[in-house]
Write a structure and sequence with these properties.
8-stranded mixed sheet; binds fe (iii) ion; alpha/beta; 16 strands; TIM Barrel; binds N-(iminomethyl)-L-glutamic acid
Length: 427
């Protein structure tokens, strides 16, 4: 785990470019392509907050003696990535399942047989708090190294009161003690636990009456999510859980239309969810409704890739005037990867998104999907200084250098927390 110390003030000088969105809300439609680009740029951070951004020529005179100065000559500077959909707190692994799926066994059939998510639930139950904390912390380290400075994480591998709360508490402790900011989401409705087999309405009632109030009382989640899917939780059950959560002040997300076209996107629009996620099978009406209601459509191309499914229609979602975010869905089942380079490659090549749209989807729109667009997601005065310096002079290399990690330096709240430069004096 990282300990934070030292100055939170620094100056990045002579960046080949600084590329960012501007604003405090998700960008929609054609606006996702409009980035601000400053050449020979400078960025000043004071006490972890961005204080000045602009061209070197306009940089006011500064006393550099008291500042950490980074020469970013030859490098592109972008906002830290926001991974707005993950399940990174889990026990055990499911490697066999990956190959069963590749040989044709459907994802939901494995779950129906008591495998899949339920397999991870068993492994998660056998962990103690310290073990869970340690492994989750190591996973955040690996994500940070790829430029991810904020991570949303979901519970959902407990499916009982104690373990759901434990997963959320681990995320709370990490957000206090780890460099990466963690946004916690309660996903008690991730699967129907074996005790409730055939009685999913009773489990929904248990969530609403018992787990949700405890989560709220302890103040350990910002969002509530439901796996709204044929054979898992119906649209009506999802509505009941999310309305209850929203009445408690939590914000809503939905695992929507992942395997079957099921009305999840429509429900997200109806109830005012912040995001609807997956959307591989989202209907035309669902896509239009999300755009109209300002639901962030969060697509997870690595999951489609790993499940060998057709990709969500991201192009249509943007062209319909919607806001799109990209996230990893890092979890031990459907997508055991948090690779930003792979995610970017799939978004560009398979989903036909432009480099600018991808950057927006992974920064400002990811921030909006976790309710933080006012604080993170762009490089502007007043925002938290979460910054990534790339090894190449243009952010286009994120896509062009396909599948390669080109992150040189990660700055979190004004501190250098990852530094891959060979010679630390230069980049
Ligand atoms: O987002 N679809 C439901 N939940 C996760 C997978 C969880 C798992 O397989 O462990 C997802 O794909
Ligand atoms: Fe997921």
């Amino acid at each position: 785990m990282h300990t934070e110390s030292g100055s939170r003030s620094l100056l990045i000088k002579h960046a080949a470019e600084i590329v960012t969105n501007t604003g405090i809300a998700a960008k929609k439609g054609a606006d996702m392509n409009r980035l601000m680009r400053i050449t020979d740029g400078a960025l000043l951070v004071k006490d972890g907050i961005i204080d000045w951004v602009g061209a070197m020529d306009d940089l006011p005179a500064l006393d550099e003696k008291n500042l950490k100065v980074i020469d970013a000559n030859g490098c592109s500077v972008i906002p830290g990535f926001v991974d707005s959909h993950t399940h990174f707190v889990f026990g055990g692994y499911r490697p066999e399942e990956f190959f069963w799926r590749l040989s044709g066994t459907p994802y939901l059939e494995i779950l129906e047989r008591g495998g899949g998510i339920l397999n991870t639930v068993e492994a998660t139950h056998s962990m103690c708090y310290e073990e869970m904390l340690q492994i989750a912390s190591q996973r955040l380290d690996a994500m940070l190294a790829m430029g991810v400075t904020t991570v949303e994480g979901k519970s959902g591998y407990g499916l009982d009161l104690d373990t759901e709360l434990m997963q959320l508490k681990v995320m709370g402790e990490l957000t206090n003690n780890h460099v990466v900011d963690v946004v916690a989401t309660f996903l008690g409705a991730h699967a129907v636990p074996p005790d409730y087999h055939g009685r999913s309405d009773d489990y929904v009632e248990f969530i609403v009456q018992k787990i949700l109030p405890a989560v709220v009382e302890q103040g350990i989640a910002e969002f509530c999510d439901v796996f709204c899917e044929k054979g898992v939780f119906s649209v009506e059950q999802t509505r009941i859980i999310l309305k209850a959560a929203m009445a408690f002040g939590l914000k809503a997300k939905i695992h929507a239309d992942e395997i079957v076209s099921f009305g999840g996107a429509e429900l997200a629009a109806e109830i005012g969810a912040v995001s609807a996620d997956h959307l591989l099978q989202a209907s035309d009406q669902g896509i239009a409704a999300m755009a109209t209601q300002g639901v962030v459509a969060t697509v997870l191309p690595m999951t489609a890739f790993c499940l060998r499914e057709k990709y969500a229609r991201a192009r249509k979602m943007i062209d319909a005037g919607g806001a799109l975010a990209l996230a990893s869905d890092y979890n031990p089942g459907s997508c055991f990867s948090h690779s930003m380079p792979m995610l970017i490659a799939l978004a560009a090549i398979q989903m036909k998104l432009s480099p600018a749209e991808i950057l927006t989807a992974l920064t400002l729109n990811g921030a909006a999907a976790v309710g933080r667009a006012d604080r993170i997601g762009t490089l502007e005065c007043g925002k938290q200084a979460d910054v990534v310096i790339l090894k190449y002079p243009s952010y286009l290399f994120l896509t062009y250098h396909a599948g390669m990690d080109i992150v040189n330096t990660v700055i979190k709240k004004g501190q250098i927390v990852v530094d891959k430069r060979k010679n630390k004096g230069e980049i």
